[in-house]
Amino acid sequence: MKTAQPLTDGRRLYNDQFKQAALDQVDAGISVTKLAQLLGVSKVTLFKWKKERNEAHQLTNEAQTVEVPTGSKLVKSKEPVSAQNITDDLLERIRVLEEEKSILRKALQILACSMC
What we know:
By secondary structure, the chain is α+β, with helices and mostly antiparallel strands. The chain folds into two domains: about 5-65, Arc Repressor Mutant, subunit A; about 65-115. About 65% of the residues lie in helices and about 15% in strands. The chain has four helices and four strands. The strands form two sheets. It has a two-stranded antiparallel ribbon with strand order 1-2. A two-stranded antiparallel ribbon has the order 3-4. The longest helix has about 30 residues, at about 85-115. The protein is rod-shaped and about 90 Å long.
Protein backbone atom coordinates (compact mmCIF):
# COMPACT_ATOMS: atom_id res chain seq x y z
CA MET A 1 0.00 0.00 0.00
CA LYS A 2 1.33 3.43 -0.92
CA THR A 3 1.42 5.66 2.09
CA ALA A 4 2.58 8.92 0.60
CA GLN A 5 2.89 10.65 -2.72
CA PRO A 6 5.75 13.12 -3.10
CA LEU A 7 4.81 16.70 -3.91
CA THR A 8 6.94 19.01 -6.03
CA ASP A 9 8.21 20.97 -3.02
CA GLY A 10 9.61 17.90 -1.21
CA ARG A 11 6.66 17.31 1.07
CA ARG A 12 4.63 14.10 1.02
CA LEU A 13 0.87 13.78 0.73
CA TYR A 14 -0.65 11.10 2.99
CA ASN A 15 -4.05 9.60 2.32
CA ASP A 16 -6.85 9.68 4.90
CA GLN A 17 -6.58 5.96 5.58
CA PHE A 18 -2.89 6.31 6.54
CA LYS A 19 -3.65 9.31 8.76
CA GLN A 20 -6.48 7.45 10.51
CA ALA A 21 -4.32 4.38 11.08
CA ALA A 22 -1.58 6.56 12.59
CA LEU A 23 -4.06 8.34 14.87
CA ASP A 24 -5.52 4.99 15.93
CA GLN A 25 -2.03 4.01 17.08
CA VAL A 26 -1.71 7.25 19.07
CA ASP A 27 -5.12 6.59 20.63
CA ALA A 28 -3.98 3.07 21.52
CA GLY A 29 -1.17 4.55 23.63
CA ILE A 30 1.88 4.65 21.38
CA SER A 31 3.79 7.87 21.98
CA VAL A 32 3.73 10.44 19.23
CA THR A 33 7.52 10.62 19.24
CA LYS A 34 7.95 6.86 18.79
CA LEU A 35 5.22 6.63 16.15
CA ALA A 36 6.68 9.56 14.23
CA GLN A 37 10.04 7.76 14.10
CA LEU A 38 8.43 4.47 13.02
CA LEU A 39 6.36 6.06 10.26
CA GLY A 40 8.93 8.59 9.09
CA VAL A 41 6.54 11.45 9.82
CA SER A 42 7.30 14.50 11.93
CA LYS A 43 5.74 14.87 15.38
CA VAL A 44 4.29 18.19 14.25
CA THR A 45 2.48 16.45 11.40
CA LEU A 46 0.95 13.88 13.75
CA PHE A 47 -0.18 16.59 16.16
CA LYS A 48 -1.65 18.54 13.23
CA TRP A 49 -3.61 15.48 12.08
CA LYS A 50 -4.86 14.93 15.63
CA LYS A 51 -5.94 18.57 15.92
CA GLU A 52 -7.75 18.43 12.56
CA ARG A 53 -9.56 15.24 13.61
CA ASN A 54 -10.61 16.77 16.94
CA GLU A 55 -11.89 19.92 15.22
CA ALA A 56 -13.87 17.85 12.70
CA HIS A 57 -15.29 15.76 15.54
CA GLN A 58 -16.25 18.91 17.45
CA LEU A 59 -18.02 20.35 14.39
CA THR A 60 -19.92 17.10 13.95
CA ASN A 61 -21.07 17.21 17.58
CA GLU A 62 -22.16 20.84 17.24
CA ALA A 63 -24.13 20.02 14.11
CA GLN A 64 -26.02 17.36 16.04
CA THR A 65 -27.03 19.81 18.78
CA VAL A 66 -30.60 21.04 18.35
CA GLU A 67 -32.17 24.11 19.90
CA VAL A 68 -35.42 23.02 21.50
CA PRO A 69 -38.04 25.59 22.48
CA THR A 70 -38.99 25.25 26.13
CA GLY A 71 -41.26 27.86 27.63
CA SER A 72 -39.91 31.30 26.85
CA LYS A 73 -36.40 30.31 25.75
CA LEU A 74 -34.47 27.93 23.53
CA VAL A 75 -32.40 25.20 25.16
CA LYS A 76 -29.64 23.28 23.40
CA SER A 77 -30.15 19.54 23.53
CA LYS A 78 -28.23 16.61 22.06
CA GLU A 79 -31.17 14.31 22.71
CA PRO A 80 -33.15 13.22 19.67
CA VAL A 81 -36.13 15.49 19.26
CA SER A 82 -39.12 14.63 17.15
CA ALA A 83 -40.79 17.17 14.91
CA GLN A 84 -44.06 16.52 16.73
CA ASN A 85 -42.52 17.45 20.09
CA ILE A 86 -41.12 20.67 18.65
CA THR A 87 -44.48 21.47 17.04
CA ASP A 88 -46.33 20.84 20.31
CA ASP A 89 -43.87 23.05 22.23
CA LEU A 90 -44.21 25.84 19.67
CA LEU A 91 -48.01 25.66 19.71
CA GLU A 92 -47.98 25.88 23.50
CA ARG A 93 -45.65 28.88 23.31
CA ILE A 94 -48.01 30.56 20.81
CA ARG A 95 -50.97 29.93 23.14
CA VAL A 96 -49.11 31.53 26.07
CA LEU A 97 -48.10 34.54 23.97
CA GLU A 98 -51.67 35.01 22.71
CA GLU A 99 -52.91 34.95 26.30
CA GLU A 100 -50.28 37.51 27.36
CA LYS A 101 -51.24 39.73 24.43
CA SER A 102 -54.91 39.54 25.43
CA ILE A 103 -54.10 40.53 29.02
CA LEU A 104 -52.01 43.48 27.84
CA ARG A 105 -54.80 44.67 25.51
CA LYS A 106 -57.32 44.59 28.39
CA ALA A 107 -54.89 46.48 30.63
CA LEU A 108 -54.40 49.09 27.90
CA GLN A 109 -58.17 49.54 27.54
CA ILE A 110 -58.57 49.98 31.30
CA LEU A 111 -55.77 52.55 31.40
CA ALA A 112 -57.17 54.39 28.40
CA CYS A 113 -60.66 54.58 29.95
CA SER A 114 -59.30 55.79 33.28
CA MET A 115 -57.65 58.76 31.51
CA CYS A 116 -60.93 59.84 29.85
